[in-house]
Amino acid sequence: MSRNPNMLRTLIGLGLVLIIVLGYAVHSNTVDSEYYMYETTNSEQTSELIQLEENLTEWYFISNEAITWINTTVLGAPQGTTLVVDASGTEWYHTPSLGQNDRDFNCKEFAPDYVELIETCIKGSFHEISLDEQNVMIGLVSTELPIGGLGSLQADNLNEANESIQEIMDRNTGTISWKISLVDSNGELISSQGIEVNNTITTHDLISVEEFKLDPIQESIYSFATLVGCFTLLLILPMIAYFSAVYKEKKDEEVRARTPEIEIEK
Questions:
Q1: Strand runs (DSSP E) across the chain, as ranges?
Q2: Range of the domain at 76
Q3: Distance between CA atoms of residues 131 and 85, nearest Å
Q4: Could you say which DSSP state residue 189 is in?
Q5: Which of 157-161, 248-252, 260-264 has the lowest mean pLDDT?
Q6: Residues 48/197, Cβ–Cβ less than 8 Å
Q7: Are 236 and 160 in the same domain?
Q8: Residue 114, in any domain of the structure
Q9: What is the dihedral sign for C-alpha 227, 229, 232, 234?
Q10: Looking at the 3D structure of the chain, how many domains does it have?
Q11: Is residue 4 part of a domain?
């Protein structure tokens, strides 16, 4: 490299071209990302439970909204009681770890290779738990709706994004009849005296849709700094090799200059 400085100039030129090309790619994707963000309400509503038969632990309510979470809490139930929540007209997801921050679960797909690491939700029209182990049942009705109220999707334009999001909302909006029951070990309803049952659902309504955008100036600065850093790292080794070779050549020249010529007697 020390004898061919054109190689160094070529590396610098290629690096600058790489910075310009990648910088333009980052900037263009930042300005026109083709991703759209949408916001929905994320409201928790208390369900009005209607007791089917007086003094018996069986209630029902009807929902007509797009729902993600359903939360049923039972207080004062005797030992050996089982809570059963049945949804007529849809299937929903449940696992004992659902909603717990310190537990890992997956409700979107079944992963047989990770069953020992991640708990998989069970999908069905009804689910049950033993109230001896816990008094709260948490269920997930839809995996398409944004759980936190913020979602994103890819679309060619704003109109297509609005249509896709509206399809998601319509697909997850419907009338569901819910039945909540408390049964004993024989599957029979127990007395409701002294028992309190509360149920809440989390509903979603579309608020807004907008194109995902970042600050192009800020992102360009970040991307340029990153590319320059990568380019610098790529040049470190060649530059070290180049200057080492030049330094060695100079030292050799100095050694040769200080060494007297020895005449060889013929």
A1: 35-40, 43-46, 50-51, 58-63, 66-75, 82-88, 92-94, 105-106, 119-120, 122-124, 126-130, 136-140, 150-154, 176-183, 196-204, 206-211
A2: 35-211
A3: 13
A4: B
A5: 260-264
A6: no
A7: no
A8: yes
A9: negative
A10: 2
A11: no
